């Protein structure tokens, strides 16, 4: 296993990464991006085991509902880079189970890659979303055929790929890029049916970073994003060679969707578990700020918080149902129930804005206008700011200000904006979750029950 310092050193491998128009030669020492390195390194140290044959518990393949359940708090504690690595590994195990014996050579390669990653304690980011070009046209009809990552050359010992993958969280901070099709492919789209693992420092890989991290020198007004932020990567593959042993799909269009759907399942489980955690946080903030404002006993405030509690409880129930009703594939790996995972993720994402609206309504305009921590330290206005932010002898003005800063950071500033978009788009949009939910719901069983209650025979249905 790697220590935090060893992880930092592993990033000095010649990777080509860029930020705001400049090439970043030293991620570790970068003023802004280096904070993400430190957060990830702390996760390494937290789970480090010096035993020679130790492997990270964060890279374990679950085989039961209990295993799935136990991983969730570990991943939340370890951070985003551990989460995307776990998701990448589980995606490959799910794909292997669904391909079963059809492509044993691919399964052997996937298993070998997973074992290598576990031994090396590396971090893997999953690259799925292509540039896509004109969304109304399939890959082979794009004006620029590189709009979807494709194979441009097949050689004796590997393939050469070209294209770009977008919205890749933490791409510059891992070691491997799990690159897979973004959707189902059909005949004539063999070159775009490519799945493989590419080292971040491979020749031809370039990553452009964007981040919601606050640019302020004093980040105390950003209690969440000031210390925990993970840049998004715009990953460019400019004629990158991939050896055969790292290729998991090449030209078999029938299996492109298997990769996309398998990743979608694990992305949505991760998204659902994050929603569950955050829903409790938002309920807690709503109750605390209502108490600080002196409005906790008002009927409409209590009603709004009750709605938030019901929302938090329902999505927690879908998470538990997804885990408890998990399936175990032929490879022995457990994966969450598709119906409950997708229905839960949809419900959480579709109702997030409503829940945040309640929080903002309860908190009030001070979410945006509360003075900064530095203002409270100012000799001229600090005491006055504290005085007027206070709502009584039991509520210190600075305490109430910190609640407001937290609500703003989570829901109404750069990080909050990132979350509003990500909640909808991560793991595929709401429409994709509707499709998968409908596909796994027992619609025929529901029709039969309707016929029975109507006193009709099954063969009466039209």
Automatic annotation (TrEMBL):
The keyword Nucleus does not apply. Transmembrane segments: none annotated. Residues 3-249 form the HpaB/PvcC/4-BUDH N-terminal domain. Keywords: FAD, Flavoprotein, Oxidoreductase. The keyword Cytoplasm does not apply. This is 4-hydroxyphenylacetate 3-hydroxylase. Residues 261-453 form the HpaB/PvcC/4-BUDH C-terminal domain. PANTHER family: 4-HYDROXYPHENYLACETATE 3-MONOOXYGENASE-RELATED. GO terms for molecular function: oxidoreductase activity, acting on the CH-CH group of donors. The lineage of its organism: unclassified sequences, metagenomes, ecological metagenomes. Gene3D superfamilies: 4-hydroxybutyryl-coa dehydratase, domain 1, Butyryl-CoA Dehydrogenase, subunit A, domain 2, Butyryl-CoA Dehydrogenase, subunit A, domain 3. It holds the Pfam family HpaB. InterPro entries: Acyl-CoA_Oxase/DH_mid-dom_sf, AcylCo_DH-like_C, AcylCoA_DH/oxidase_NM_dom_sf, HpaB/PvcC/4-BUDH, HpaB/PvcC/4-BUDH_C, HpaB/PvcC/4-BUDH_N. SUPFAM superfamilies: Acyl-CoA dehydrogenase C-terminal domain-like (SSF47203), Acyl-CoA dehydrogenase NM domain-like (SSF56645).
């Amino acid at each position: 296993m790697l220590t935090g310092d060893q992880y930092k050193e592993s990033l000095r491998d010649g990777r080509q990464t860029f930020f705001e128009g400049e090439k970043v030669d030293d991620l570790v020492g970068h003023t802004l991006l280096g904070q993400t390195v430190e957060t990830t390194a702390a996760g390494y140290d937290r789970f480090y085991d010096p035993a020679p044959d130790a492997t990270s518990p964060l890279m374990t393949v679950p085989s039961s509902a209990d295993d799935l359940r136990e991983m969730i708090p570990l991943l939340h504690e370890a951070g985003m880079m551990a989460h995307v690595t776990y998701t990448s590994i589980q995606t490959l195990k799910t794909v292997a189970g669904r391909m079963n014996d059809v492509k044993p050579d691919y399964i052997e390669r996937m298993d070998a890659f997973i074992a290598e990653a576990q031994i090396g304690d590396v971090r893997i980011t999953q690259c799925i979303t292509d540039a896509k070009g004109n969304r109304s046209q399939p890959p082979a009809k794009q004006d620029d055929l590189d709009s979807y990552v494709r194979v441009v050359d097949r050689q004796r010992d590997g393939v050469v790929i070209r294209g770009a993958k977008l919205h890749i969280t933490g791409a510059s901070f891992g070691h491997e890029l799990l690159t897979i099709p973004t959707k189902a492919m059909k005949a004539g789209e063999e070159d775009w049916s490519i799945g493989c693992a590419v080292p971040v420092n491979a020749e031809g890989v370039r990553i452009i970073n964007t981040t919601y991290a606050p640019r302020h020198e004093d980040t105390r007004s950003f209690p969440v994003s000031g210390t925990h932020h993970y840049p998004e990567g715009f990953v460019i593959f400019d004629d990158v060679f991939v050896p055969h042993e790292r290729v998991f799909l090449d030209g078999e269009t029938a299996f492109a969707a298997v990769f996309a759907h398998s990743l979608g399942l694990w992305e949505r489980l991760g998204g659902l578990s994050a929603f569950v955690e955050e829903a409790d946080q938002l309920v807690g903030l709503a109750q605390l700020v209502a108490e600080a404002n002196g409005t906790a006993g008002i009927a409409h405030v209590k009603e709004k918080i009750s709605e938030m509690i019901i929302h938090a409880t329902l999505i927690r129930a879908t998470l538990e149902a997804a885990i408890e009703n998990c399936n175990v594939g032929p490879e022995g790996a457990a994966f969450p129930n598709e119906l409950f995972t997708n229905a839960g993720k949809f419900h959480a994402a579709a109702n997030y804005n409503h829940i945040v609206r309640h929080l903002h309504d309860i908190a009030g305009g001070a979410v945006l206008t509360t003075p900064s921590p530095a203002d409270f330290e100012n000799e001229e206005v600090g005491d006055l700011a504290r005085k007027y932010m206070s709502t009584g002898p039991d509520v210190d003005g600075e305490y109430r200000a910190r609640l407001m800063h937290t609500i703003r950071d989570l829901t109404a500033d750069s990080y909050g904006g990132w979350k509003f978009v990500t909640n909808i788009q991560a793991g595929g949009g709401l429409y994709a979750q509707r499709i998968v939910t409908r596909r796994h719901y027992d619609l025929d069983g529901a029709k039969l029950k309707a016929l029975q209650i109507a006193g009709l025979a099954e063969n009466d249905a039209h």
